Every structure is written in structure tokens, then in C-alpha cells.
Amino acid sequence: MSNARLAMRKPSLVAHVRKEWKLYSFLIIPIAYFVIFKYLPMLGNVIAFRKYRGGPNIFGTEWVGLRYFHMFLKDPTFWRAFNNTIFLSITYLVIRFPITLIFALLLNELRSMRVKKLVQTVSYLPHFISMVIVAGMIKEIVSLTGPINTLLGHLGIEKIQFISLPQWFPTIYITSGIWQGLGWGTILYLAAMTSINTELYEAASIDGASRFRKAWHVTIPGILPTIMTLLVLDIGGIMGSNFEKVLLLYNPLTYETADVISTYVYRMGIGGKEGVGGNFSFATAVGLFDGVIGLILVTLANFVSKKTTKTGLW
Amino acid sequence: MKVSASYRTFQGFNALVMLFVVIFTLYPFVYLVAQSFSSEAAIYAGKVTLFPVDFTANTYKLLLQKPEFYKYYSNTILYAVLGTVISVSLTAILAYPLSKEKLRLNKFFIPFVLFTMYFGGGLIPNYVLVAQMMHMRDTIWAIVIPGAISAFNVILVKTFFAGLPNEVDEAARVDGLGTYGIFARMTLPLSKPILATMILFSMVAIWNDWFSASLYLQSKEHWPVALYLRQIIDSAIGTNEFSSSDAAATQIAATIKSTAMILTSLPIICIYPFVQKYFVQGMLIGSVKG
Amino acid sequence: MNRFKKATGIMLAASMVFGLAACGSDNDKDTNGESSTTEKTSTETAGNTDATSNAEAVGYTFGEDTTFHSDEPVSYSMMFSDNEGYPYKADWRLWSAIKEKTNVSFDLTVTARTEYENQKTLLVNSGDAPFIIPKTYDESPFVAGGQIVPISDWVQYMPNYQKAVKDWGMEEDLKAKLKDDGKYYVLPGLWEVAGGGYSYIIRKDVFEKAGVDVKANEGNWTYEDFYDAMKKVKDYTGAKYVMSDRFKGESTLNIAAVEYGVTGGWGLSNGLVFDQDQKKFNFADTTEDFKNYVTYFNKLYSEGILDPESFTQEDDAALAKFYKGDTYVINGNYQNLADMVAKMQVPDADLYMIVQPGGPKGQLQIEASRLENGVMISQNALKKLGEEKFIQMLRFVDWLWYSDEGHTLSLWGVEGETYSKDADGNIKLNSDITFNGLNPTAEKKLNVDYGFGGGVFAYGGSAKLKLSKMSEGEKDYNDRILTLRQARKVAPPIMGSADDSEEMNLISKPLMDYVKTMTLKFITGQANIGTEWDSYVKQAEANGSTRYTDMANEIFEKTKSKLGY
């Protein structure tokens, strides 16, 4: 269908496809994959508006309009999850973003290539560790017999049951996030830094600029497109949080600060440990709401970024 | 080049920061290793912080004696290998035409792929699709197919392909290679860094995946080791599964989690440094837009 | 950007067309489904006479006191909850024994116990459930989806089930399972007599040394008295904590809730308690009763009687403390007790299971219901087998889960191989096999090595069968409960329509999550009962506690005549 429309505008398109059909043939399987595994589930969101009863009716059995939206918008637990999601994401973003950038700049200043490689190797490692293990580690480290409480004990401070205290959850979430993502977060910055024209640094040196000035006036402007791209992506990700990590770390005692939209969707849709037969339509409605807000956010951020720095995702 | 005092102070400070990062990153691993080799009494008394106390490797022995553990481990290896083959080939054959500027329909296909980075079907619709429409429930396909291509990876590979010199193409054509021949015999061999990067990403993603397994795989015999690990961490695997002797039971309870965590992540930790130079190179070229 | 928009626009338009077409065809299928249900009612009577008049013609034998046996080998798909205590083995004698007797084999979906509830939800909701879905504690959330057979329409084909219901007078008990259409959707496990259930396992030796005469007191002590006793133990032993609970406190909170007239722990449910005098539901978990309940546990907690880790630690950690003699009270059932005796690391420890203490609401029995978790049958069975074969399957289920022979097989195995019978017909487990505290030193385990006595099949049954697996201690415990504690009446079911039930489920889940969180916070002092109580009540209200209760009462008013109220 799209071919036909485009063809009308550009009569040579058919000829173009005919000429390049071999290259286009590469696309058949991957694009089919995208249609089935990425776009069909988007259509599946229709069960947010239709009652899903299972069986062969995967698009639901009857229209119910906004029934499920009304239900979750009335539910204070949804709003708690909504607020927690935004709070965790923004706090994490505000803390992690500058730290990662500074770490990348510091790495770039290292003179010994061996040290630089070593630090990179070590700091990338946690990125490759399964969330199950990360969560397991966290639990061991903050447990009553773990090293943090042992240290507190030596300092004469009473032990803290970190994992069951809601006020500690954001700290655990953010610290472990930085632990896991600090090194990996620098990789795109470092890549961007290598492509900065060295003449700019030389010119700055001739002008007598210090290291700090060079970082400020050459490096940062040089990697600004990367910074903006990552920032836009992160803003788009505000409505998502690290679902697996929260799921593995939270418990009823910490729901108050830990329950996020994705875990709420999971509990309402599938049940989790409590296993109280989930409601697919309801969970889909919440997920769709979340996804649409995310899409709006990334579009807005991209728009602002393009206006101000002329870089954007598209 | 003169080195100012303030610059030397800065380098010293910088070295300290790096040292801190290295310690901060490695300490949890060190602690896990120490705990896994320590006695239960020492762990509960909070004596273990850096080195094993009352060294014992008993839990390793017990876990390594369990046939299930090998079963789950080999499942994981199978999933990782098959999944990686599928994922990397699909990504490469999609990225290749997208990297060709002369293809006018790319103006449609590239946004089509990119859009999936920003919006998707959500947990339940994806489940319904994979489990019900595609009938992949409780099969290996549910693990290796749904996540096979990520738009982000496609962009990395596409950028890398686009950065390859054009002359290569022309020379190959003169040698009589067709479109498929150029792709297979010229482009792919020149793209080892980015392909290695993709292989690593895909392997790791599948190795670490427990959630889709818990969603799609009912039968325990199909479990990957990550899901088994999750059961151990949740203490859902009773210690009496490992030993009926009672004194051993409390020792196992204290060390089984760290032991299982180490044994499960070991392959990644061991292989990763060797692949690192490829993916740094791959990411470098793939992410920097020409 | 512009081009991109257009392109996605086209794409979406195309997919909408596709999507709607898919919806259309699905609707067709749905109507087909309905017409087959109407057929069903018309043939039901025919099937009935057919079965009673001539069993031979249907290709299998069945009936009261008749072993189910199919002429042709058949296989039924079934979910199986794999307990890590006795992991599934394909070569268990259990499977071959069932096959030998009935010519039936299972096509099992073996799922780990911990993933079982999730998988059940996913399989049933997506319409791909196996025919037989055992170990279902609450079938209500599945009813609205229409994937479960309203089994009460079919129980006339199940002679053993019918007999048990009639002989043991279960009709009243079954009313608790009715839904708004007047049907029920699960075949519950049926016990002739209610069980003793969970209680506190204590170190009687230590209690007595501390000056508590357990046996003289337990008959009429309340939770306050139990507190005094534990206080004495703490003073006497100087222990850091007297009780370190297992099951994350779920069982303790459950059994205490009954005596305080509230809900909690495993029995948290929807927070409603039925007032038998006023004939209406109240939301119990924001009442003064509930305040007293959390205040009590907060007292145990703050005075160092209850280990602070009770609500977060894993079972193993709690047990380790008890085995080592660091603590003296732990929750459990009698089977747990039998298991624990062997593992005590303290010489001469005397473990004793007390009857559950009473509370403000009296000295009540915990187990009010004689129903157990049960079996759901998926609509897929009816669809794929057709009616006749479906009835055949039901008769097999009837035999395995409800006949004496089936019960005995699931629980004790094969006569001559795993057990023998004495002259009076009493069952005696072979001396080289251990189970449930019987023959504690034997090498082989009935559940681990043979598959018998497992939770999926072996539950329910006559009083005699129940007694057969009890040690003297357990019999004594059961007798104590029956004589010292009063039975209580079961609450009526809330027979809401599908829409009502859906809405109520969606209110209830987050509401009860909140109640659960706050229960633990009040107990552990993270929330102050004195100052934060009112805001708790208000928040529960905002979460829909009153709306939920009102809906329940409205539904009850509409349906109470059907229930005999």
C-alpha cells in the first residue's frame, strides 16, 4: 500500500526497487520480525479498551471503553506507583548523569593507557552481570550480617534492616544503579571524545588554556551532541524504571517507596508471589498509559533539544 | 611540556578517584567470594568482610554434584548459542540495507525500526503474542526469538557498515561479486569488531535472562540457570535438597546463595576481558556518526 | 520527521485493518463456543442415563467402590506443582501405579511450586490451561474469564464425590464456593473432619523450667496469657528473643487473626469478616479489633519476645535459631514438628504443639472449613475431549481424588510394596520407609522416592484415613483442639456478577497490599499505632475499603435467599 502511494509521487520508485531488489530482499525477514514481534504487541494494547477473556480471542471479546482507565485512575496505589516511578527516575537521572559525565572526563585525563584500560575493564564489568545476581549481592551486602552492618556495628551504630525499610529503598536503588552503570555509561562519551579534532586541543594549548579550560571549552562542546542524545533518551525513560531490579528487591514493607508502575502492572496482571489471578486488560491499560506518557516525554525532550542545541534523536 | 604543580595535584586526585571506583566496583564480588568459602558461624557473626573465615568449599562441592545444576547450565548455554546466532544474523542483514544511502525506501524503514525504541506493546500484549499467537510457550523459541533484534543494536551495526570505505564495494563488484557475495565475503569480514560486540551483547543478555524464562517456561526441565539461581536466592530451594545431614544444612543455607551467584556469573567474568577490546572498538565506530 | 509521521501513519492504518479483521474472526469463534454450550445441556440427560445403565458401553469402568479403568489407554494434561522438598521424578511409583490401576497417564506441565501461581494465572487467563488444574486455593479470580468449567453442572457424573458430600454432610460447606450464577467452579478437597492446622511449636522443657505449666494452661489461655508465659521464658533464659517466626509471620498472623476477629497473614484475603448476628460483612482490618491485634504483636516485638527478623527472614534462618536453642517458640503444623524433632541440636529438647491461644473473640478453632484446596477443570478439556470423553475424565478425577481407593493410593502407595494392612484394615507403612514422622530413621522416603503422600494428590478423605497418617502426638493434638476450642461458622460467599467480581478484585488487591504493609509496620514499630492509626484508617478508606464492603453487602442482600440466610 505504501509502495503505491510513494510510487505516485515518484514514478521511478518501481524501477528503483526493481534495480535494488537484492538489497531490499535482505529486509524481508527482519521487517517481518518487526511487524510480528514489535508492532503486533502494540496493536495488542487494544485489550486495554476491550475485555480480555483468554482463549483464541487475543484482542478481547467486547469493547468496554475506558472502564479500566477509570478504575486505575481511581486507585491510590496506582498514583503511589506513578509518583515513585517519577521520583526514582528523576533522582537517579539527576545524580547519575553528572557523575557519569565527570567520570568520563576524568578517564579521558588519565595519561597511562594501561591504567585507563584497567579502570575501563573493571568498571564495565557490572553491566554484564545478571540482575538476579546484582539483586542477590545487594541483599547480602545490606543484610544484618553483611559488611555494611558490620561496619555500623564497629562504629557503635545500631544495625539497620535496610531491605525492609522504605526510607532506604531509593538509596539502595540509586547506589546500585551507579555501581552497575557508571563505567558503561561513559563508553559513548569516550567514543565521542576520540573523534574530537586534536587540532582544537593544540590551538587551546597555544592559547595557554589549562586542562580544566580545555575540558570546558573543547571537550564538552565536542561531545555535546552525545550528551544531548543521551539526555533525551533518559528523559524518555523517566516513566520506565528498572523493573527487574525493583521486582527482585522490593517487598510489602517497602512498597511505599519501591512500588513502580511496571511492578504494579506485573502484580495486577500476573500476580507475583501472592498469585491472585491477574487481570490482563487492566494491566494493559496501565501499561499503555505509561507507554504513551513515555512517548510524549521523549518527543518533547527531543523537540527542546533540537531547538536549543540542534541535536536530536530524529 | 611543563607540568604544573596544580596539574600534578589533579593527577593525584584523579588516581585516587580511579582507585575508589575500582574498589567500589570490585568489592561486592570479593565479598561474595569470601562469604561463599566461609563457615556459617563466621558469616552470622559478621566476621566475613574481605577474606574467607574458617575456609570451606563444601557448598561448591554439593552444588557441583547436583545433576540439575548441569541441566540448567547446559540449557543456558544452548539458549545463549542459538539465540546469539539468530540475533546477530538478523541484526546484520537488517542493518546492511539500512546502511545503504542509495536505498530510497530507507526513509520509511529506518523510522519504522527506530520507533520501537520509544514505544512498545507492554508486558501483557507481548506475553499474549509470544505465548498464544506464536505458540512459543514452554519452548526455546520464547527465549531466543522475541528479543532477537533491538533497534539500538541495529543502529550501531548500520553506522559501522556505513563507515566502511565505498571502494571496497566497487573493487568487489569488479571482481564479479554480486550483492550477496559482497555482503558475505567483504562486509562481514571487515566488521569483526561490531559483530563481536553484538555477539557479546546477545550472549550476555540471554545468559542473564530469568524473567522471560519465568514468564514463558512452565517446565522446570527447560529452566535456564539464571532462573534456578533466582529460586536459590529466594530460598525456594530447600537446603534439604542438597544434604540430609543436619549440621550441613545450616552451613549450606548460609553460603548457597553466594556460591550459586559466583558459579553462574563465572563464565561471563572470565570471557568478558578477552572480548573487551573488540566491543570497545565496535562501540567506538558504531556509535560515532560519520 | 514529516515523512516518518506519514510512514507510521500508513503502517498504523494498515495494522488497524488487520487488527479489526482479527477481532471479527475471534467474535465468530466466540459464538461458536456458545452454541456448543447449548448443545451440552441438551445431551446432558442422555449422557446421564447412558452412564448409569451400561458402564461397559462407554469403554471404562467406574462407580462407587469400583476402580476406574479405561479400556483404551488415555492421557490427560495436568498442571503439577513441583515441591522442592520432594522434586518431581518421572519414574515415581506413583505414576506407574495410577497407570496400572486405571490405564490413565498424565501429560504433565511440571512447574516449580514457587512459580505455580503465576503460571496458573498465565495459562488460565490466556486460555491454554491443561485439562486438570490441581492445588487451587482460590478459584474466584479465574471465574470471570470463562476458562473454567462450572463443575457443579457435572458432579452428577462423579459417584465418589457425591457419596462423600452426602455421607459427610458437605452441602453446607460447599455453599461457600458458590458464584453469582449459583454454580461452583472448583472440586475442593473434602475432609470428613476439619484439621488441626498450624499452631505454635514450643520447647515445653524450657517453658516448664521457667515455671509455666503448659498442659494445665493451654486449654484456656489467651494470647495475653501466652505473652505472660513467653515473658517468663525470656526472664528465665535471658534469651535475646523467645520466638523467631518462620513463614515470614504469615501463619502466626493468620491464626491469631481468627481469635481477634480480623484477617491477616495467609488468611488476609479481602479483609472482610462476616458478622453472624447482624448478617453482614464488616471490613475488619480497620476496626478496634485490628488495632488490638497489631498492638499485641507490637508488644511482643518491642519487648524482645519476637525476633525482629521474623517477618523478613527465610524459613531456614528461623529454623536454625530454633534448632540451636536460641529461640523457644516457632510456628508450624504437625508435619513440621515431626520433621523438626530429628533436627534439634539441643539434647533432650521436648517439642510440643500447643493448641492455638484464644483471644477477644473467644477460644475458636482455626480451621472452620472442611474444604481443602482443590481441582479446577479447564474448558479446554470439554472442548478437546468432547462431552463423553470429558465425563470419562471426570470419573477418573472422581476416582483418584475422592474414592477411598484413590485416597489410599495417593497417600500410602501400593499395598504390599509401601504399606500393609492389619486385620482391622488399619494401614501400616513399611518399616523401611519414612513419612510424616513415622519411622523417622528409615532410609527411604515415601514422598521423595515414591511420589506418594505429595500435596497435589494426597489430601482430603475420611476421618479414618486422616487418622491413619497421624502419630499418637498428632492425634492428641487434634483431640485437644476439638475438645478445647469451639468450632466457628464459615462466612457466606460473595456471589458477585462477573463485572462486580472483577471490580472488587481490582479494588481488593492494592487495598490488601496496603493493609499487609501497614500490619507489618505497626507490628515492627515502623509506624506508630498511637499517632498513625487514624491516617491508616483514612488511607484504607481512600483505597476503597468501604466501597468494597458495601459492594459485598449489596451482593449478599441480593443473594442471601439462595444461601439460606
UniProtKB/TrEMBL annotation, chain A:
- Whether Ribonucleoprotein counts among this entry's keywords is no
Limits of the ABC transmembrane type-1 domain: 82-301
Q: Which residues cross the membrane?
A: 21-40, 86-107, 128-152, 172-194, 215-239, 282-304
Tell me how this protein sits in the membrane. Multi-pass membrane protein
GO BP term (any one):
transmembrane transport
Transport listed as a keyword? yes
SUPFAM superfamilies under this entry? Answer: MetI-like (SSF161098)
Going by the UniProt record, its keywords in alphabetical order are: Cell membrane, Membrane, Transmembrane, Transmembrane helix, Transport
Please name one Pfam family that this protein belongs to: BPD_transp_1
Report the main location listed first in the record. Answer: membrane
List localization entries.
Cell membrane
GO CC list? plasma membrane
Q: Which family does it belong to?
A: Belongs to the binding-protein-dependent transport system permease family.
The protein's name in its UniProt record: Carbohydrate ABC transporter membrane protein 1 (CUT1 family)
Give the source species: Paenibacillus cellulosilyticus
Lineage, please?
A: Bacteria, Bacillati, Bacillota, Bacilli, Bacillales
UniProtKB/TrEMBL annotation, chain B:
Q: Which organism is it from?
A: Paenibacillus cellulosilyticus
UniProt keyword list: Cell membrane, Membrane, Transmembrane, Transmembrane helix, Transport
Which sequence ranges form a coiled-coil region, renumbered to this chain? Answer: none
Q: What is this protein called?
A: Carbohydrate ABC transporter membrane protein 2 (CUT1 family)
Per the record, membrane topology reads: Multi-pass membrane protein
What would be one Gene Ontology cellular-component term for the protein? plasma membrane
Name all ABC transmembrane type-1 domain ranges: 73-263
Q: Which GO terms describe its biological process?
A: transmembrane transport
Which InterPro entries did the record assign? Answer: MetI-like (IPR000515), MetI-like_sf (IPR035906)
- What is stated as this protein's family in its record? Belongs to the binding-protein-dependent transport system permease family.
Q: Where in the cell is it found?
A: Cell membrane
Q: Which SUPFAM superfamilies match?
A: MetI-like (SSF161098)
- Does the keyword Transmembrane belong to this entry? yes
Keyword check for Repeat: no
Looking at the UniProt entry, the stretches that span the membrane are 12-34, 77-96, 108-128, 140-161, 182-207, 252-275
Source organism, top-level taxon: Bacteria
From TrEMBL, chain C:
The top of its lineage is:
Bacteria, Bacillati, Bacillota, Bacilli, Bacillales
Residue ranges, compositional bias (Low complexity):
33-49
Q: Which InterPro entries match?
A: Bact_solute-bd_prot1
Q: Which SUPFAM superfamilies match?
A: Periplasmic binding protein-like II
Q: Which organism is it from?
A: Paenibacillus cellulosilyticus
Q: Per its record, how is this protein called by name?
A: Carbohydrate ABC transporter substrate-binding protein (CUT1 family)
Q: Which domain of life is it from?
A: Bacteria
Q: Where is this region: Disordered?
A: 27-54
Signal peptide start-end? 1-21
Keyword match Signal: yes
Q: What keywords are annotated for this sequence in UniProt? A: Signal
User: CDD domains, from UniProt?
Assistant: PBP2_AlgQ_like_4
